[in-house]
Design a protein that fits this description.
The complex is a heterodimer of chains A (about 400) and B (about 325). In chain A, helix 5 runs antiparallel to helix 6 (about 140-160). Chain A has helices spanning about 1-20, 60-65, 75-80, 85-100, 105-135, 140-160, 180-205, 210-215, 220-225, 230-235, 245, 270-290, 310-315, 315-330, 370-380, 385-395, 400-405, and strands spanning about 20-25, 40-45, 45-55, 170, 175, 335-345, 345-355, 365. With about 400 residues, chain A is mainly alpha-helical. In chain A, the strands form three sheets. Chain A has a three-stranded antiparallel β-sheet with strand order 1-2-3. Chain A has a three-stranded antiparallel β-sheet with strand order 6-7-8. A two-stranded antiparallel ribbon of chain A has the order 4-5. Chain B has about 325 residues and is mostly helical. Chain B has one domain (about 60-315). The radius of gyration of chain B is 20 Å and the shape is globular. In chain B, about 45% of the residues are buried. Classes of the chains: A mainly alpha (about 400), B mainly alpha (about 325).
C-alpha cells in the first residue's frame, strides 16, 4: 500500500517539475531521520509543500517470531522493538500475559517495575534531548544527556546485568532479585541527578536560538492530534491530558503522586517542554518507589510459572521437575485474548495477546505509539522550512524498531 | 630575486599555516571535549598531539569518489580554488610589524577582502558540480550567506578605515595605540565578530555544512583529500578571520614590551579562537531564513549606523 503511494509520488514529481517544485528524497540513510525513515518531500524553494513518509526498512518480524517462542522467551525478542525503552515493552507484554494467567504479582516486583520503567522513561527522554540538540545544530547537549543516561544504564547493569535490552521483567515478576548494593546506587543517583538535569535544561530549553527553532514549528491542534491517533507526550503537547498511567492505572500507579504535564500550542517547543517536565515527574515517581519499596518475594510463588530457587532444585525432586518443565516446555496459558496498554516513553504502548491454550502465544500484536507519530509527520511538516523537517522529526521522537517491528 | 624570496616565504608560511590548521583543530577538539565531559583525542601520541598527523594520513588513504554525474573538471577544481583562495588571503595578514608574505601592502585590508570574497567560488562550484540536491542546496545557502554577511563586514571595516585614516594594516594597528578599537567602537567589534563567524561558517552560522538537514551541505559528495581541502580552507579562513579581529579591534601586535609583538598577536588570536570554539560548544544553529533576515535587517542597518556615527566623529575631530 505504501509502495502504491510512492508511485503516485513519482507521478507527482513529474507534474511538480512543471511547477518549479523540487522533490527531495530524505533518507532512509539520512543522518537526521532517527533510524530508517524515508521522507519524500516536495519543495517550493525551501518550503515543504508535501511530505510522504515511507517506513518498513527495519522490519524484523518480531511479532511473528514471538509466535514461535514460549511465552517467557518471547520477552527477549519484544525487547528489541522500542530499543530506547525496552522495559516498557517487557512491562506491557508481561502484564498482558499475567492478566490471561490470572496471577497476582508480589508488591516488591510491582514497585520495582514502576521504578525501573520510570528510570527507562528518563533515559529515553534524555536520548531525545541529546539527539534533538544535534539535529538543531547544538553539539554539547548530547554529551550532557548521555552522561546522565550513563548513570541510569549503570543502574540497569547492576540490576539486570544488561544495559540496553534488560529483559528484566518476566511473566510473574522479575528475572532476579534486586542486587545488594541497590540502595547505595539509587541514593547516589537521586543525589546527583537534579543538578545534572538542570545543566542540560539551561542549555536547551532556555537557549534563545533553540526556542526560535522550535516555537510555532510543526503545530498540531488537539483535534488533529487525536485524529492521528497520537498518544504520549506528542498528544499532551497539544493540550490533551491523556496518560495511560492516570486513565487506566496499572502497576499501582494510582498510589503514586505525580502530575501529567500538558502543553498548550502543540508545537515542537511544547513537545520538548512536556518531555522535560515528564523527566521531573518520573524522577518524583522514582524517589517514591525507592522510598516505599516493599519487602518480600520478587516473583510469584506459583511454581508452575516462575522458576524455583536454585537451592531448592538441588534438594527437592519436585522442584527439579518444575525447573526442567519450565526451562524446556514453558507453561500453558489458558485460551483467551487480552489487550494491555502501558504508558511507554513514546505514548500508549499496547500489547494484544491471543492464546489458544498452548505454551506459545498464538498472536502477539503490538500497538507502537511511534507508528502514529510517523504518520502525523505530513500534517506537522506542512508549510515548514526544510530545516524544520529535522526539528519536527526529532520532536516527534519516533523509534523505528518499534514502528516496523 | 625578489620573486624567489616571496616564493620561499610563501612556502614557509603555507606550511606553517597548514600545521597551525592541524593544531587549531586539535585545540578545538580538546576544548570541546573539556566542555563536554569527555577527553577529546588522547590515543595518538602524548595528549593526542599526533592526532592531526593520523587524521591527515587517514584523509590521504581514503578513496577519492567522484559521483557518476558530476562535472569532473569543476568537481576536482572546486576544493583547490577554495584552499588556494584561503591561503592567498592569509598572505596579506601581518602577524607582527612587517611580518607578512606580502609586506606592508598598500590597501592590504582591501586586497584581503577582495580575495576573501572569492571564497564563494569554491563553495558554489563544488556544490554545483556534485550534481546532488543536498550539495546544490548547501551551495546556494552558503553563497547567499557569504555574500550577505560580507556587506555588513565591509561596512564595519569602513568605520575602522575612517578611524585609522588608512587601509594599511600597520596604520590600522598604529591607530589603536593607547585605545584599542574594541573599546573605541564596541558595536563595530560585535558586528565584525558576528560577520566573521558567518564568513567562516562557524556555529551558529554553520548552515553551509549543516550536517542535519542537508547531510553535509556543499561538500556532501566529497571524500578523501578533496574533502580535506575544503576542511583545510575552512580552518585557514578561521585563522585569517581571527587574525583580522585581532588586527582591527584588539590592537594587533601592540602590548607591553616584555614580549615581542608577534607573541602578543598570537596570544590575542588564540583568545579569539577560544571564543569561537566556546560559541560552538554552546549554541545551536540558526534557521536559514532567520539567518538571512538577521544579516539584512539587523547587521546591515547597524553597520550603516555605525559607519555614519564614526564618520561624523572623524569629521568633527
Amino acid at each position: 500500500m505504501i509502495r502504491m503511494g510512492l508511485k503516485d509520488e513519482l507521478q507527482q514529481e513529474v507534474a511538480g517539475q512543471a511547477q518549479d517544485r523540487m522533490t527531495l528524497s530524505v533518507g532512509p540513510h539520512h543522518p537526521a531521520t532517527h533510524g530508517v525513515l524515508r521522507l519524500v518531500l516536495e519543495l517550493e524553494g525551501e518550503t515543504i509543500v508535501k511530505a510522504t513518509p515511507e517506513h518498513g526498512f527495519l522490519h524484523t518480524g518480531i511479532e511473528k517470531t514471538a509466535e514461535h517462542l514460549t511465552w517467557q522467551q518471547a520477552i527477549t525478542v519484544l525487547d528489541r522493538m522500542d530499543y530506547l525503552s525496552p522495559l516498557s515493552n517487557n512491562l506491557g507484554y508481561s502484564l498482558a500475559v499475567e492478566k490471561l494467567l490470572g496471577i497476582e504479582v508480589p508488591p516488591k516486583a510491582v514497585w520495582t517495575r514502576v521504578l525501573l520503567a520510570e528510570l527507562q522513561r528518563i533515559s529515553s527522554h534524555l536520548v531525545y534531548f541529546g539527539t534533538g540538540g544535534v539535529d538543531v545544530g547544538a553539539m554539547t547537549p548530547i554529551f550532557l544527556a548521555f552522561d546522565i543516561r550513563e548513570m541510569i544504564l549503570d543502574i540497569f547493569e547492576e540490576v539486570a546485568g544488561s544495559r540496553l535490552h534488560q529483559s528484566y521483567f518476566r511473566i510473574g515478576g522479575l528475572q532476579q532479585d534486586l542486587p545488594a548494593n541497590f540502595n547505595e546506587i539509587m541514593r547516589n543517583f537521586i543525589k546527583k541527578f537534579p543538578e545534572r538535569l538542570e545543566e542540560l535544561k539551561s542549555l536547551i530549553l532556555e537557549n534563545p536560538i533553540f526556542i526560535d527553532r522550535t516555537k510555532g514549528i510543526g503545530k498540531l491542534s488537539p483535534e488533529e492530534a487525536i485524529a492521528h491517533g497520537l498518544t504520549g507526550p506528542n498528544l499532551r503537547a497539544s493540550g490533551v491530558p491523556y496518560d495511560v498511567r492516570k486513565a487506566f492505572p496499572y502497576c499501582d500507579y494510582d498510589k503514586f503522586d505525580f502530575e501529567v504535564p500538558v502543553g498548550q500550542n502543540g508545537d515542537c517547543y511544547d513537545r520538548m517542554v512536556v518531555r522535560m517536565r515528564e523527566i521531573e515527574e518520573s524522577f518524583k515517581i522514582v524517589q517514591q518507589a525507592f522510598e516505599g519499596m516493599p519487602e518480600g518475594p520478587f516473583r510469584c510463588e506459583d511454581r508452575k510459572i516462575s522458576l524455583p530457587p536454585k537451592a531448592e532444585v538441588k534438594q527437592s525432586m519436585e522442584a527439579l521437575i518444575h525447573h526442567f518443565k519450565l526451562v524446556s516446555y514453558g507453561f500453558d496459558v489458558p485460551p483467551g485474548e487480552v489487550y494491555q496498554a502501558v504508558e511507554s516513553a513514546r505514548g500508549e504502548f499496547a500489547v494484544y495477546v491471543v492464546s489458544m491454550g498452548t505454551n506459545k502465544p498464538w498472536r502477539v500484536r503490538v500497538r507502537p505509539p511511534s507508528f502514529y507519530a510517523v504518520h502525523a509527520l505530513p500534517a506537522m511538516l506542512k508549510n515548514c522550512q526544510i530545516a524544520d523537517m529535522v526539528v519536527v522529526i526529532a520532536a516527534a521522537d519516533p523509534v523505528f524498531g518499534e514502528v516496523d517491528r | 630575486m625578489e620573486a624567489l624570496a616571496v616564493a620561499a616565504k610563501s612556502f614557509v608560511v603555507i606550511n606553517a599555516v597548514l600545521v597551525a590548521f592541524a593544531y587549531i583543530l586539535l585545540f578545538e577538539r580538546k576544548i570541546l571535549g573539556w566542555m563536554q565531559y569527555r577527553k577529546g583525542p588522547n590515543r595518538v601520541g602524548p595528549w593526542g598531539l599526533l592526532q592531526p598527523i593520523a587524521d591527515a594520513v587517514k584523509m590521504f588513504l581514503k578513496e577519492d569518489i567522484i559521483p557518476k554525474d558530476a562535472d569532473r573538471l569543476v568537481f576536482q577544481l572546486a576544493p583547490i580554488v577554495s584552499l588556494a583562495v584561503a591561503l592567498t588571503a592569509f598572505a596579506f595578514v601581518p602577524i607582527g610589524p612587517g611580518l607578512a608574505v606580502v609586506k606592508d601592502a598598500d590597501a592590504g585590508m582591501l586586497a584581503l577582502m577582495a580575495v576573501l570574497s572569492l571564497e564563494v567560488y569554491g563553495v558554489a562550484l563544488g556544490g554545483w558540480a556534485s550534481q546532488s540536491k543536498y550539495a546544490l542546496m548547501g551551495a546556494l545557502r552558503s553563497t547567499a550567506q557569504l555574500i550577505s554577511y560580507e556587506l555588513a563586514m565591509g561596512m564595519t571595516v569602513l568605520a575602522v578605515f575612517i578611524m585609522a585614516g588608512s587601509t594599511r594594516f600597520d596604520a590600522i594597528v598604529a591607530s589603536q595605540e593607547g585605545l584599542w578599537n574594541i573599546v573605541r567602537m564596541p558595536l563595530a567589534f560585535l558586528l565584525f565578530f558576528i560577520a566573521m563567524l558567518a564568513e567562516t561558517a562557524r556555529t551558529p552560522f554553520d548552515l553551509p555544512e549543516s550536517e542535519s538537514e542537508l547531510v553535509a551541505g556543499y561538500h556532501t559528495e566529497y571524500s578523501g583529500m578533496r574533502f580535506g581541502m575544503f576542511f583545510m580552507a575552512e580552518y585557514v579562513n578561521l585563522v585569517t578571520a581571527t587574525a583580522l579581529i585581532t588586527l582591527l579591534f584588539l590592537g594587533g601586535w601592540l602590548g607591553p614590551a616584555f614580549l615581542p609583538g608577534w607573541v602578543w598577536f598570537l596570544l590575542k588570536q588564540s583568545l579569539v579562537i577560544f571564543l569561537f570554539i566556546w560559541i560552538r560548544a554552546t549554541l545551536p544553529r540558526f534557521r536559514y531564513d532567520r539567518l538571512m533576515a538577521f544579516g539584512w535587517k539587523v547587521m546591515l542597518p547597524l553597520a550603516a549606523l555605525n559607519l555614519v556615527v564614526y564618520a561624523t566623529w572623524a569629521a568633527l575631530a
